Amino acid sequence: MKNFLLTFLSLCLIFLTAAAVIGGLGVHHYLNDGALPEEKLVLIERGQGVSAIAQTLKKEGVITQPFLFKIVARFRDSLKAGEYKFPANISMADAIEMMELGEVFDRKITIPEGYTSYQIVKLLNGRTDLQGEIKAIPAEGSLLPDTYHFVATENRQDILNRMQLAMKKALDDAWQKRASGLPLKTKEEALILASIVEKETGIAKERARVAGVFINRLNKGMMLQTDPTVIYAITKGKIQNEGKGPLGRRLLRKDLKINSPFNTYKNVGLTPTPIANPGRAAIEATLNPEKHDYIFFVADGTGGHMFGKTLAEHNRNVAKWRKVRAER
Fold first, then answer.
1. What is the dihedral of CA 316, 319, 320, 323, to 10 degrees?
2. Concatenated DSSP letters for 78-105?
3. Is the pLDDT of residue 133 over 80?
């Protein structure tokens, strides 16, 4: 009996010693620097379980002990999918914490307000961290300018689809909150006018006032007479981007005589389609315009505009603008 107890105690001691050694090694591998030689982007796909994540990290060199990773990860919060930029020599503990917190690498693309659909497609096709080529230009005004986040494996068309859904929602929401008595019968008409407002001013505080001018002109049956519509008539949205404006030159007086349904110097009412993709602010300003008596506006030389209620007042403002332009 005595020999049995000695043998049992010896085995227990050996087991405890081995467990301590294994545990110590486990703690060492968990807390100490890892073997990743340099910073690396690793994509954790949606739907991957702990075992699949462990294998991905082992394959990419982030960890060397996938079994230990699986044991620890099962006792932690859920690991979030996404693309992670793991720094060189990251420990297993820090890698797990990054994925618990969802500290994903932020890939994003920002679409400026007022970009045409042609410009947006060109911007998307120019990104090397997206897949698939967009060949067809979406309908003008169907894409919402905003910042969109994505992962490296995402398809360009998927982002385009998100832009279209975002525009539909933004327009639906703004239409529900529109002011009463507007001369805009449909959401499409609101989108058309919003695109014109967007192209006429980039100053936030002016949008509602500019929208109010166009609403007043529509109510009076006047032509909108806005230069951006003529530019669109010439370019069809395929504008130049060489620092000389969308035409690559100044808009000329003869351009205002071009025969096109988009030329608001020759046609009463709205253009057939939007002339760009307006942002949320321009859509909301168009559907809740400032109420005033202005029916004219012209550039003031500082990026803003001077507004007039009569032709005489407008002519004075135009003279001021011409003087500013001549001095330049």
1. -160
2. PPPPEEEEEPTT--HHHHHHHHHHT---
3. yes
> Could you give the residue range(s) of every CATH 3.30.160.60 domain in the chain?
293-328
Give the dihedral sign, CA 124/125/129/133: positive
**Which ranges in the chain are annotated with CATH 3.30.1490.480?**
35-105
Render 246-309 in DSSP notation, one character per residue: TTSSPPPGGGGG---TT-TTTSSS--SS-SS---HHHHHHHHSPPP----EEEE-SSSSEEEES
Give 34: exposed, middle or buried? Use CB within 10 Å, 0-12, 13-18, 19+: buried
Indicate the residue type of 61: G
The domain defined by 293-328 folds into Double Stranded RNA Binding Domain (3.30.160)
More confident of the two residues 319 and 268 = 268
CATH topology of domain 35-105: Dna Ligase; domain 1 (3.30.1490)
Burial class of 67 by CB neighbour count within 10 A (0 to 12, 13 to 18, 19+): exposed
Query: Quick one: pLDDT at residue 21?
Result: 38
Burial letters for 217-249: b for 16+ Cβ neighbours within 10 Å, e otherwise?
Answer: bbeeeeebebebbbbbbbbebebeeeeeebeee
Phi–psi pair at 316, nearest 5 degrees: -65, -40
| 3-state class (DSSP) for residue 144 | coil
Classify residue 92 by burial, with Cβ atoms within 10 Å: 0-12, 13-18, 19+. buried
- pTM score, two decimals? 0.80
